[in-house]
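Could you please review the protein record set out just below?
***
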Amino acid sequence: MRASSNPDFVEAIARGLDVIRAFTDSPSLSLSEAAQRTGLARPTVRRILITLQELGYVHAEGGRFELTPRVLELGVAYFSGSDFWALAMPRLRELVGHTHESSSIAQLDGSDVVYVARVAVPKLVTLAVSVGTRFPAAQTSLGKVLLAGLSRDELDAVLSQPSRSGVTPPWQPGRAELDAVLTEVREQGWAISDQQLAPAIRSIAAPVRSADGRVLAAVNVNAHAAETSLERLTDVYLPHLLGTAADLSADHALRARVPLEGVEA
């Protein structure tokens, strides 16, 4: 029996969710198996399964019960009602756990990057960064990844817009130099910024892609140059970063696909 001191706690709902979760490792369950897995009495489990069957969440055949695709509605409500970058925070925290450096996700807004998610680690830094902060794209590893994902016409249009960040970076590349950098980013699949945005700031970034391969965001690891060498960024942090970028891309593809596929039984 589930215990709760909250007078508004609805025991029936809790038991119903327990029964749904009982199917986690098995595609079908008998009444006895469901009762054993949940620790609930057989009559209780039977009533719950019959209710779920009436609602279309469970299919019964030959004395065994199976969940129907309609159960996906529960997940769709979560995915559809939540901001993806908020959902990405556990991925960032895991990355930070590996590197012990701050990590951020950013998207392009004109010729700037805008931070949409961040997990910060207290370090010696020269720039304050939080969600909503913007920097000129060309001087950041995040921005290089995002710019590299654009077509030539898109890149021309973006670079024609002045930065609204209020930051004047020390590195001011000409177009030919920037094009060469972006070509390298496209070829290797990641980007580095070594004190090009501000003194002592180093970062490495990788793309987060949609299901069709479009670069929709970038994720980075940010470090202080006095503490972290370029070799450590590429040799130690990059594999974790690429793994996180791949996970975020898969998460985004799943979130986009589930509502489109539908949940009809």
In short: The chain has ten helices and nine strands.
